[in-house]
Amino acid sequence: MAKLLMTKTTLGNGNTDNQSVRRWVEAQAKLCQPDQIYWCDGSEAEKETLTAEAVAQGILVKLNQEKLPGCYYHRSNPNDVARVEQCTFICTPMQEEAGPTNNWMAPKAMYAKLGAMCAGAMKGRTMYVVPYLMGPPGSPMTKVGIELTDSLYVVLSMRIMARMGEVAYKQLGDSDDFNRGLHCMLDVNPDRRFIAHFPHDNAVISVGSNYGGNVLLGKKCLALRIGSFLGRNEGWMAEHMLILGVESPAGEKTYVAAAFPSACGKTNFAMMVPPAHFKGWKIWTVGDDIAWMKPGEDGRLYAINPEAGYFGVVPGTNSKSNPTAVQTIARDTIFTNVALTPDGDVWWEGKDGPVPKECLDWRGNKWTPDSKEKAAHPNSRFAAPMKNNPMLDPLANDPNGVPISAIIFGGRRADTMPLVYQAFNWIHGVYIGATMGSEMTAAAVGGLGQVRRDPMAMLPFCGYDMGDYFRHWIVMRKLIKFTPRIFHVNWFRKDEAGNFLWPGFGENMRVLKWIVDRCNGRANAVETPLGWVPYAKDFDLSGLADYSSEKFDRVQTINYDDWRRELLQQDELFMRIYSHLPKELIFQRELLVARL
Ligand code: OXD
Ligand code: MN
């Protein structure tokens, strides 16, 4: 292969003849002025070299390899621990295209602003060229991205989260259709932090952060914000959804996609282990965060998981909440912002086993059980390869994806929302998704605990106007012959004393079974103003200790006062996005009011 015509020292074995890639990298290097350019090839040897380098530089700490083979630890700057929506911009030529729920700046102005910040920003540093795929190799749905970054932590995380290296150049060939991602850490200063998307150029520039959601550019930036924009233009859907396969004892497989806001249990749900009572049932994981869905030739909706790893919230992960994750993160994992024990192990609130007598907290300060602060940051994360998942679906790497029978929307709601109900039809389901609300979590900075509208869990991730996005959902109906059934769930409803009305975790299998049975024409349901719901007698509660059918009725109650308030809150979103809001959704609202 021809040597790269770089003016800088070039390192690494990654190489490409693709002229568009080479010209673009050259131009960015001219701007950022790194001392050297490292072309990643994605090999195991490279992983070893770069990991050793990261350890030598103090970016990673090698964990106890006997307990945690292949695992490393990273501490981020304490000002940089979550996504920052106020610093996230959609830069379309017209503000109207980005819509009222996105921050906007004209592309020219943003390129100029960030260009000035990036100028010379990599002096004395290395620019890593990270080619990657979102999606299985060879899939017509797969997209190529190239991320240029001065963060070794990003390089090593990207190779877990995406299919990274030569495989991307192979898929790209001599095309210039790749996402151009530039990441400069700068001084990791919140005042100089921007995550800017240029959907018309298929480009992203991220500066001033080193937190996963802001800087692993394949994930939220390409797979969701740019992806949703591309999907609208190209006739497919990019969604903030897990994908799982439910296998019955008879071997019947039903695939389900589910949208919950960040840190509301998508990873746990995607890796659920059915309780003992569900003998012979299995849950297989396809993905835990993102689904790209496209109508197939047979008229069904097919989904791929564009990612290759899991970037999950650590606290609360244990063998009750997610035994599959416990196995998945036992090796080859990068832990960020958890606590570090004296024997080179990691710890977090809610981990199995004893609380350590002493450790270093996520900031590196001494921590004991008497400390007032949490040892692990509430948004501390693991980055683990999906191939470690013992329940990885055999079709997770299938270029054709998996056929989706049900779509589930859900939020974290202490009141109002029943455990489960089913939409009357697709358009009603779009309304249910569009009006979703959830209590805010630590995955994003600000507003903890407040209910905010988070349509389809895409509020922070939709790369264009939210009303147009709803329109796209409605248009997709015409392209899918066998539409998935749509459901809403809420695992988090509480009674007046603040106790959860549903046990959650593995017991969510009971809800999933009803959903799967509905899709396969087997379960009864009764019509309510909200949609179809199960009667206690049609819902499997057997073997669930201390759970009466009265309690089930309570978790399913429709409280009319709550719903009046809910409708007013939903209106706030609809008013905000009114100019592009499809009229169909206003009719759906009227119908709901009439039914209530
Ligand atoms: C995530 C998020 O990291 O949604 O997946 O914040
Ligand atoms: Mn997410």
Question: Could you give a short description of this structure?
Answer:
This protein is of the alpha/beta class and 596 residues long. The protein contains 16 helices and 32 strands.
Could you please describe the fold and organization of this structure?
- With 596 residues, the protein is α/β, with parallel strands linked by helices.
- It has 16 helices and 32 strands.
- The strands form seven sheets. Strands 1, 2, 5, 6, 7, 8, 9, 10, 11 and 12 form a ten-stranded mixed beta sheet that branches.
- Strand 11 (194-198) and strand 12 (203-207) form a beta hairpin.
- It is globular, with a radius of gyration of 24 Å.
- It starts with 8 loop residues before the first strand and ends with a helix.
- 53% of the residues are buried.
- The protein binds oxalic acid and manganese (II) ion.
- Manganese (II) ion is lined by residues 240, 262, 289.
What is the fold's blueprint, element by element?
Layout: E1 9-11, H1 19-32, E2 36-39, H2 44-56, E3 61-62, E4 72-74, E5 88-90, H3 95-98, E6 103-104, H4 107-118, E7 126-134, E8 143-149, H5 152-161, E9 163-164, H6 166-172, E10 179-184, E11 194-198, E12 203-207, H7 212-215, H8 218-234, E13 237-239, E14 242-247, E15 253-259, H9 266-270, E16 282-287, E17 291-295, E18 301-304, E19 309-313, H10 323-328, E20 334-336, E21 339-340, E22 346-347, E23 359-360, E24 366-367, E25 381-385, E26 402-410, E27 420-422, H11 426-434, E28 437-439, E29 451-453, H12 466-479, E30 485-489, H13 508-519, E31 526-527, E32 532-533, H14 549-555, H15 560-576, H16 583-595
Parallel strand pairs: 1-2, 2-7, 4-20, 5-6, 5-11, 8-10, 10-12, 15-26, 26-30
Antiparallel strand pairs: 3-4, 7-8, 7-9, 11-12, 13-17, 14-15, 14-16, 17-18, 18-26, 19-25, 20-25, 21-22, 23-24, 27-30, 28-29, 31-32
Helix pairs in contact: 2-5, 11-12, 11-16
The structure holds oxalic acid and manganese (II) ion.
